[in-house]
Structures are given as structure tokens and as C-alpha cells.
Amino acid sequence: MNILIAGAGSVGRSIARELLGRGHEITLVDKNPSAMRIASVADAEWLLADACEPTALQQANADEADVVVAASGDDKVNLVVSLLAKTEFGVPRIVARVNNPKNEWMFDDAWGVDVRVSTPRIMTALVEEAVSVGELVHLFTFHSSGAAMYELTLPATSPVIGSRVETLNLPVAVQLATIIRAAQPITPQPDDTLEAGDELLFIVAADLTTELSQLQELLAPEPTDLDPSDEEPTS
């Protein structure tokens, strides 16, 4: 694919190197001369220009791009680049970096954004996923549909340990997508048995607060504060 990256900072260059390694054609655009570290991504095309200007995008052949990545450290720049790429050049796919989570709500199709990537939100999700056992963790939301992916690591106390996948009474509009066991992804089959430590990945339809509570209760309910058998006898 032909991919144009607006923003040649450390993030933009890292994306460029990864995509070049996968066989894509890359053009990097940045208005800052200090960002022109051409030797660091020597196989990419480079353009010193302001990607917020239509003439710069035209010079970068945005009309031939399959994807534009707005990867600068400025949310205003990324929004403008996204809008221009979509409306003026008809780029099929726009991926935009969100630097400030408070601005995330603006990164939608009204601004030409197809996929928004919030680094702080992703980092938060990864930290939660790494330290949370028995709690649903929101990993990310699919921009177009509003559906979301959640992860839960089954604790040893889960009532579904030893249960087969086909017996799980999952809420409506919740699908078990993958089981990760011993660092290996497993496509769930009806007769697969769940084990302690399994990481379960779920796809959940948009805005299902009640269903998420039901899913949490099914997989890892909160323990009661006091077992009735432990109560002090009354005299």
C-alpha cells in the first residue's frame, strides 16, 4: 500500500519503519527541518512541508495514497490533516493519533477520521490488563461500529473454571473471541474447558453497561464481605 505519514517525529518515524518492513511504500511529511532525519528511515520518501496545507499534500501525492496517518504531536494538526486528506483528496482510510484524551471525542468521521489511536488510553489499558486478574479491562473501541474489546483473566476462584465454552451463559451481544493460554491464542470451540489464568477476549456491542456487569458477575463475581458461617454467634 501507499501510505502517507504526516508528522516525522519519533512516532511517525517508528510507524514508517514498521510499515516499510512489511513491504509498504511510505512518504513522510513534516514542516520542521529538525525532523528531517532522513538517514533514520532511508527507504521512505521525505517532504519538508506543512501537511496542513493542501498544496503540501498534493506535492506528497495524497490523491494516490491508500492510507494517511496523522501522527504529529499536535491534535489540531492531526484533525486538519485528516479532514483535508478525506475531503480534498478522497483518501480511503485515515488513521489519526490522539495526543490528549480530552480531545478524543473530536476524532470522528466529521473530521474525516476512520481510526483514532489514543496512546495514553492504550497505555492505560495495557497497564490495567497487566495487573488486573478477575476484572474486565476495556482494551479499545472499534471506531466505526462502536463495539469494544474487553479482556478478563480468570482467577482461580472463578465459578466457570472447568466449564465448557458451550455452557457459558453469556449476555446478549457479547461474544467470546479468543482464549489466550500459555501465551498461545486459542479459537474458542464449544467443548473447550476454561482454566484458571486463561485470558478471555470479548467483543461487546456498543453501550452495554448492564451486560458488562452481568459478564463480570458470571466470570468473577465479587466475594461477599462475610461468609454466614463466619458470623459471630449472638448471645
Automatic annotation (TrEMBL):
GO terms for molecular function: potassium ion transmembrane transporter activity. The keyword Phosphoprotein does not apply. The keyword NAD applies. Keywords: Ion transport, NAD, Potassium, Potassium transport, Transport. InterPro entries: K_uptake_TrkA, NAD(P)-bd_dom_sf, RCK_C, RCK_C_sf, RCK_N, Trk_Ktr_HKT_K-transport. This is Trk system potassium uptake protein TrkA. Pfam families: TrkA_C, TrkA_N. Residues 137-218 form the RCK C-terminal domain. Residues 1-117 form the RCK N-terminal domain. GO terms for cellular component: plasma membrane. PANTHER family: POTASSIUM CHANNEL PROTEIN 2-RELATED-RELATED, TRK SYSTEM POTASSIUM UPTAKE PROTEIN TRKA.
